[in-house]
Amino acid sequence: MSENKEPHVAKFVYDFTEGNKDLKDLLGGKGANLAEMTNLGLPVPPGFTITTEACKVYLESGEEPVALRDEVSAHLDALEQKMGKKLGQADNPLLVSVRSGAKFSMPGMMDTVLNIGLSDKSVQGLAKQAGDDRFAWDSYRRLIQMFGKTVLGVDGELFEEALDAAKAAKKVTVDTDLEAADLKKLVTKFKKIVKTEAGRDFPQDPREQMDLAIKAVFDSWNGDRAKLYRRQERIPHDLGTAVNVCSMVFGNLGPDSGTGVAFTRDPASGHQGVYGDYLQNAQGEDVVAGIRNTVPLAELESIDKKSYDQLMQIMETLENHYKDLCDIEFTIERGQLWMLQTRVGKRTAGAAFRIATQLVDQGLIDETEALQRVSGAQLAQLMFPRFDEDAKVEKVGRGIAASPGAAVGKAVFDSYTAVKWSRSGEKVILVRRETNPDDLDGMIAAEGILTSRGGKTSHAAVVARGMGKTCVCGAEELEVDTKRRRMTVPGGHVVEEGDVISIDGSSGKVYLGEVPVVPSPVVEYFEGRMHPGADDADELVEAVHRMMAFADRKRRLRVRANADNAEDALRARRFGAQGIGLCRTEHMFLGDRRELVERLILADTEAEREEALKQLLPLQKKDFVELFEAMDGLPVTVRLLDPPLHEFLPDITELSVRVALAESRKDANENDLRLLQAVHRLHEQNPMLGLRGVRLGLVIPGLFTMQVRAIAEAVAERKNAKADPRAEIMIPLVGTVQELEIVREEADQVIAEVQAATGTQLKLAIGTMIELPRAALTADQIAEAAEFFSFGTNDLTQTVWGFSRDDVEASFFTAYLEKGIFGVSPFETIDKDGVGSLVKAAAKAGRATRPDLKLGVCGEHGGDPESVHFFHEVGLDYVSCSPFRIPVARLEAGRAATQSAGSDHR
């Protein structure tokens, strides 16, 4: 173990009366919000929070801070005095829960232990205190079960099997039908399981129970499921977790007691109303685990109107205080309402947009804050297709619409299979009776999640919403048999593992087979085919429309499109593009023009080469005329030919076989022989680092000048038609200013010739892509010959990391992500420390030489939400991305411009 190094902090433990909601870094989200509710005068059971700083010391050194035990003892003494009870005393025991609470919500990923303080002696005192033997023994068996699994590492299935056996012996189906004598026998069985599996007795000392539970919560920060969840949600690994020690209140004291989870608005749709789940005679874990089906929260009004009315008032108080959707856990103990937790609730993408606009209309937040409540990732989810309601489908069940989306895949019944099949390229739906935190890797791998138990507040629902996964919960009519790997649907049809099913997270419907999909209404809105209206879909469109208008008013970054033809350009314009940041001219050389490119490559003489270029020229010009027409009045950046020439030739293996077969038949084709010779001549070991980009323009005379001439003539033609073409010429793969100077000199000459021939004034900006480390490091020199830089971050990432994108993502990126080397692929989100540092340095150096240098980015990072924020920060003028990512980039550019410190809406 390393030396115990403690930070210089005033204390490691805070009473609930000492903190507030702004201390999430120190007290974690749960502790900070318990303190805030205490400050508001809400009914919170007394308790205290052990800080994240204590956790960090423990994780770094393997030992708790020296001062921690004494601080916990002092706060425990104060708690005992306040409650008039002592922890675990025989006649009148104080019981506590020990719960995790990180800065960011990680539902079910870390550990919780309830009923700490129960022992063979104190269980008798609890029974006497409550006047209920069954309740006391039920609480004791829960403690041993949770403690055994969480603290001592006993397989939880062993406890479940013993519980199922007890119910079977009694011929009952739910645990509430077990009587005190049954539960007492179960406690004895559970203690034997602990002794056998853990090699020690269940601890009878209540302080030992509490101390071991605190350590277990600290350890759970680095548990496999917690680390996987943090990687998935992009939560930093060095935050640590706080630990909350709270006096127990009991929902399992009979029919006048219970536990529940409530939302101040529907987390699936965002609509206002009474949303949540309630379970009589239960403890909190029963609700989130989904092991017993709950009743809707609205039914609490008829069960316990006094508590219901008080809860409604508290929910209104909390929403107005937090100015957001709140997720609340509560317990009713014999008619007394207690608040156990509140947090800003996870929500679906559609709910996020609706709630943000609702809160603006209510005057609780302004437009700037509203933009922080939504994200580009959520907008992207809303653009996914949905099921075609008019298709012929076979509906077999319906559950609770927990997280929207249209998911189709093969049914699998455990997480291991889900991960295995997904890695093999299969799309899967994870089907479970209920999920638990151990299912996280399977939930990530699946297209969607289907459970037969649980509600909108179950583990499956909460985690799915957080990840943006389609989820249907509580489909009770479906009989899920995980051991036999099958599901029986009404009518007796059996869905075996591997059978295709479809689930609709917006309606809760479950279908056999693959249901066809149709475009999202949000995409139809961006395409101009749908306008804000009154029904549910249009209400969402209205919310998206308003948030996009907010973003467009606030953003500084302009958003362009990567588009190579008029059709894509027009779609991009409908989606809000402010120009084209990357037109890849190589795409214009494919199809029926490939033969002309082959003739260019095979040319043995200057005359043959010029003839091929002469025939390509009008075709290129036509492409540019159409593109400039589609983007009239907006800039169009045209990249000259970039890829290696061998990409325009037949595959070497296929061509070799064709030639060999022809030779064997003695009818060899002369052109095929010349092509094969050319393929061998142009073959490179590393073609992406070979003869491509500007190097082609320097080595193959006339290639770049033909393209420049086509651009210039197209601009002249459009100008003569009284249009407003705004072309920019981009030279790819420049590594030194000398390359750019030579190509630029030739381009300027061609532009002058076209200007003279057409009598049209032409002003074409010439710039370059910065996609090589050397270009970034010598940007001050390159800016002398460039009027703009466009960062090609795809290639820049390859060359900085030494990765071949086509190879590494399939070969070892999965392992790098699993081991935490990457939080996310550097091709998906820009590597700020490496690639980002070069972008920042090149931008600064380029503008030092040429202050009016225009700066943009045209790699796919231009449509990645997190990367857009980085490009805003380093002062780029625009980002460019594929047409369907334009709305995401527009929204994130607005969010970047209004980013406020301390907004933790995940």
Automatic annotation (TrEMBL):
Keywords: ATP-binding, Kinase, Magnesium, Metal-binding, Nucleotide-binding, Pyruvate, Transferase. Residues 426-508 form the PEP-utilising enzyme mobile domain. It catalyses: pyruvate + phosphate + ATP = phosphoenolpyruvate + AMP + diphosphate + H(+). It comes from the Bacteria. Gene3D superfamilies: 1.20.80.30, ATP-grasp fold, A domain (3.30.1490.20), ATP-grasp fold, B domain (3.30.470.20), Phosphoenolpyruvate-binding domains (3.20.20.60), Phosphohistidine domain (3.50.30.10), Pyruvate Phosphate Dikinase, domain 2 (1.10.189.10). Substrate binds at residues 584, 639, 771, 792-795. It is an enzyme of class 2 (transferase). The lineage of its organism: Bacteria, Bacillati, Actinomycetota, Actinomycetes, Kitasatosporales. This is Pyruvate, phosphate dikinase. SUPFAM superfamilies: Glutathione synthetase ATP-binding domain-like, Phosphoenolpyruvate/pyruvate domain, Phosphohistidine domain. Belongs to the PEP-utilizing enzyme family. It comes from Streptomyces cellostaticus.
